[in-house]
Amino acid sequence: MRPFPPPNARRAGFSILSMLAAAMLLALPTAAPAQPQIAPPAAPPSAAEDNWLYAGSDIPRDLAWQFGELPNGLRYAVRNNGVPPGQVSIRVRMDVGSMFETEKERGFAHLLEHLTFRGSEHIPDGEAKRIWQRFGVTFGSDSNAQTTPTQTVYQLDLPSVTPANLDESMKLLAGMMREPRISDAAVDAERGVVLAELRESNGPQKRIADATTEHLFAGQLLGDRSPIGTIASLNAARASAVQAFHNRWYRPDRAVVVIVGDGDPAEFVRLIRTYFGDWKATGANPAEPDFGKPDPKAPVTRVIVEPNQPLSLTLATIRPWIKRLDTVENTRRLYLEFLAIALVNRRLEYRARAGGSYLVATVQQDYLSRSVDMTTTQIVPLSDWKTALADVRGVIADAIQTPPSQADIDREANEIQTFLQKELENARNEPGARLADDLVRAVDIHETVTSPQGQVDMFKAIRASATPEVMLKISRAIFSGPVTRLVLTTPKPIPGGDGALLAALARPATIQDDRLAAVDADFSQLPKFGAPGTIVSQTALPGLRAERIEFANGVTALVSNNTVEPGKVRVNVRFGTGNRSVGADESNLLWTGDYALVASGIGPWGQSGIDQITNGRQIELNFAIDDDAFELAAESRPADLADQLKLIAGKLAFPRWDAAPVERLRVGLLTGYDLNDATPNAVLERNLEGWLTGGDTRWAPPDRSAIEALTPAAFKAFWAPRLASGPIEVEIFGDLSTVDYRTILTNTFGALAPRKPISPPDGQRVGFAKHRATPEVAFHSGEKGQAAAMMAWPTSGGRAASRDQRALDVLAAIFNDRLFDRLRAADGASYGPMVESHWPTGFEGSGGYLLAGSLLAPKDVDRFYAIARDIAADLVAHPVTADELARNAGPIREQVARASTGNVYWMFLLEGATQDPRVTAAALSIQSDISAVTAADIQRLAAQYLKPERQWSLAVLPKGMTLAEASALGKASASAVGGR
């Protein structure tokens, strides 16, 4: 899944920037080769067509979209899409965000979003959520909303759509937009939820972000209008004021309705006309607010002192945002800007790899909230911020003084072009929800969308113009502007404060002209694996379009040749025994593998060599640890499959042990170590798995001394035997019609020497935290008003009881729904309580648990425990109703049905299937297992596992606060409420 989908040129660039940033840290860029054909320009629309999105633009139209505008000014866009089958995705975009608020209305756009999703004047409060649950909709993922500085977007992904539930859903959404329930009672309830959201998000990271935003965008609404609002404005909010905000901004001529899905676009248009067509605006459309322009007279530098936070620098060059028509020429400029950024990022990353003065430095260009055009450089110094700043500025100075080589330009252009080709090849599998989101985003930033073929065609022409001289001109443009801002975040004050920053910025940059040297690397340099292997058996898996292949050296493969994703092949190589390779109380370096194992190189190649051999190709290397195996995974394509498997097999057969990535990991973990207790959530993210498993070292985090003691020698001593030992299972799923995958496997994994068997340590079970009469207490160093409460019960694990595993998922969903209704919807005590069932399959009969938890205020910790205990006891004592069971099992079943149309789903479920036939049986029975869950099953499992004498609980409190003090706050609060 892409982090930033590119419906147009600008977002394509930003998507690849994110991919490159991640890939550089992993040493492997991701892309796929392209051989595009130039298409003629799109024909001009006929008079009968309404193409409001393309007004004035020559961007090739995506003809799959149908656009229109109702007489009341509401605009719409609809299209047919069958991915996943049976789903329809609806988006309603309102042209109002936090920058449309007055000072007294700060947070109103977001508060109104919450109120709107509670329902409308035509249905009982909260009933919309239950109606959509009955339709199979999961709250928070299938139904959600988002408020930004410039828009509010309501999202509904409706699975297994029928004419009746689509009609009802459109009626509900239209009612919400037109007449949300804005009563004093509803405002009071959602005020608590929004204040909880504000409280839970508060902490050093938010303070730094807020202070940085205020400084960068001085004099602009963007620097002063966070969507969450302020405590004062939210407490002052009354129903009448929120209603007035709604009446002013929620108008049909400020609305865009987008529907994409498995249905007739004509029917989508009919529903829009039926339920939105008679919506009438009150008064004239308000004037757009003045977002402001960057203020060149505002201070240039700012030091933000935040204890226990690492040093970091933000250097920004800021230009006013200019509204431009989204044309082919504008697209050319945007792509060339991205190329220029990518060239600098590559050099910055290579300097960091070589042991520079900074841990990470990246440049990004953004067009933010229709307010600024900004080039931002983020730097994490190793120690001396002045040296790091000077070094990074030196790289930028060279970029605007000396043209890049054509070879460097071509390297970065290859990455973009192959990525776009990959998008084109996968266009048939583009989910409707993503297409809908892309179009909404285009409307927000005043741009268009085009087809993947249009992207490929445009970029092929654009890259031809990317000469060294042109790129130098572009670099000079994006690193210059009327406003410069510099922010230093530091754990303690620096001598000279803001003046020291200003002085450092005033020093002329010293050119860093260490251009990247060409690397001579190709796959012919990889040592031979051995003689081609021998296939000893080939067997079809019953019930699946897949075959099991076994080689004489013990390697097994599970292969599915399908066209679910044309032009794409997914690979997952499982080896060794994962977490089972160490004992529960044995010190280990499992925590070092995620970054350093891949980055330490393969055979003759370090990171730079791997960059070279993968440039312009769809070849990856991603590492993960499962309970019973280590994994190296990739998303590739048929033409690259042979070399993709060579690369992964080479990592196992010929690992390289470069020291630099290990040291970089060590320094990075130490740099961020003090972040681990800055908020309750940070404490939980770091420690919860270790606490739940009773301190099992496989999940407990390393302490500072262990990180400090990490050496390249210790790293190699731990990982070398694990790369060399234990069984190998290769999963290959995808479009294999044009490749001889048996020969490829025979020449790679089949040719490896037989591997040593592994005897895991004895006692391979996972423990659970010991029961205590009172909650354990941990502490965070953040805000005094923040806390967290957790409650868990041990369950089981393994493959012997897969039906109970699915029933526990339903039980967790019911528990979660009840906790949400009582803790959030009714009490407003928490923004996002959660309940989840964890049932690992790598440890038979152990390791599972049901976990309930929430971030909240200290005063609400006891309330959480009381509600959670009450829900657990009721689930044991009483069977759930048929409606409650259906409302919670249905969305799970729908999620499975949607996921089962893709290869990722089946590859995940079939991990280990070549070695254990129970894996296949469990994978094939998921839908029937969920459908067969009864109220009696829920009550049986609740009685079996939700036992008070086995329950474990934890409170994360501010440092210095006791559990008794938190309880006293709760009693005082309850007394105050009762006395009013």
UniProtKB/TrEMBL annotation:
Supply the alphabetized keyword list: Hydrolase, Metalloprotease, Protease, Signal
Q: What InterPro entries does its record include?
A: Metalloenz_LuxS/M16, MPP/UQCRC_Complex, Pept_M16_N, Pept_M16_Zn_BS, Peptidase_M16_C
**EC number(s) stated in the UniProt entry for this protein:** 3.4.24.-
**Cofactor annotation:** Zn(2+)
- The answer to whether the entry has keyword Signal is yes
Task: Please state every residue range assigned to the domain named Peptidase M16 C-terminal.
Answer: 241-314, 710-887
Peptidase M16 N-terminal domain sequence ranges: 87-215
List the Pfam families hit by this protein, alphabetically: Peptidase_M16, Peptidase_M16_C
UniProt signal peptide: 1-34
- Uppermost EC category: hydrolase
Q: Which family does it belong to?
A: Belongs to the peptidase M16 family.
Could you identify this protein by its name?
Answer: Zinc protease
UniProt source species? Sphingopyxis panaciterrulae
